[in-house]
Design goal:
Strand order of the largest sheet: 2-1-11-10-12-13-14-15
Helix content: 25-40%
Order of helices and strands: HHHEEEEHEHEEEEHEHEHEHEHEHE
Distance between the termini: 48 Å
Strand content: 15-25%
CATH architecture of the largest domain: 3-Layer(aba) Sandwich
Number of strands: 15
CATH class of the largest domain: Alpha Beta
Number of domains: 2
Radius of gyration: 19 Å
Number of helices: 11
Largest sheet: 8 strands, mixed
Amino acid sequence: MKQLAEAQQVIPPRRDVDLAFLIAADSSGPLKMSLREVFALGSYLSPELKGRTISDARHTVSLTDSLQQASLVGRPEELAGRSVLLAVSDQLISAIAMTEIDGLARRMLLCPPDLNPDHVRNLIVDVEIDAIVTDEPARWSDVGVYQVAAARMPVRAPTRARAKRATEWLMPTSGISGVPKIVSHTLQGLCGAIIADAPARGTPPVWATFCDIRRDGGLQIFLRAIIGGGSMVLSEPGEPIADHVARLASRGVTHVSGTPSHWRKLLMSGSAGGFSPRHIHLSGEIADQDVMDGLKQAFPGASIGEACASTEAGDVARMVEHLADEAGRNVTGSTRTMDAGNAA
């Protein structure tokens, strides 16, 4: 990782360095890095950050040691330059695999588990997929893609493929009918609005989202946790809301994100007691006043922010940036962020 070594020579370890410049740098610049390389440099700049984890309802994986672990089985370098479909049923394995594929593949298409199988087959053709990373290899034996790589819970890996290129991140839209459209992002575009200034102002945050991290809103929270020095607690399909909230509380979640529908369900369940997040984020839908009032009553000590009428990655990132800034100022209250199309 030549770029990382060069950066380490010129940047002394310190907790208040803003890592956003690493991602926002021009592609020809010496500090253009993959997600893993940015994470590695962040760990170098803040060596005192220990005990970082990412977890679901069944497993907990160390983020602190993630650079010595791998979820891809076999020879990951064979994915170099390919158009990769990431189709893993498990969010936790998907999260680690994303960090391994970025910087290696030419493009990576994230496949949410609820995507129609027929639509997936169409997308494979449209996006020119020539490799699939999955935890269910047999499922993809008849789709006409020769290169199928297995993914698993991460294990210690003595060697690692180096980043070779800027990977194009592809995500299907969540349309209600027809084949979903594909939205293309760069790592720079996904993370450009995230102020990754390292948690110099208190305990590192623990992030959570009700959304799947293979969708725009969930992906932004995952990236914030990875780049910003925190931990991450993932949602679990089919988990009762009371169990989910209890798990968030037991893992010490401080920042949590979801749609107004998610928050309405939580409020109606009566499961809010014992859970005390510092920051609450709503996105994807316009929240009605009943939800906002209910959240203020249930979580009187929390800062509440809403990204209105938008599911675009940039708008979610700006709201996450706001919440990160709120964390430093310890502000209690609520705010709304209007995108240009909805500004008064």
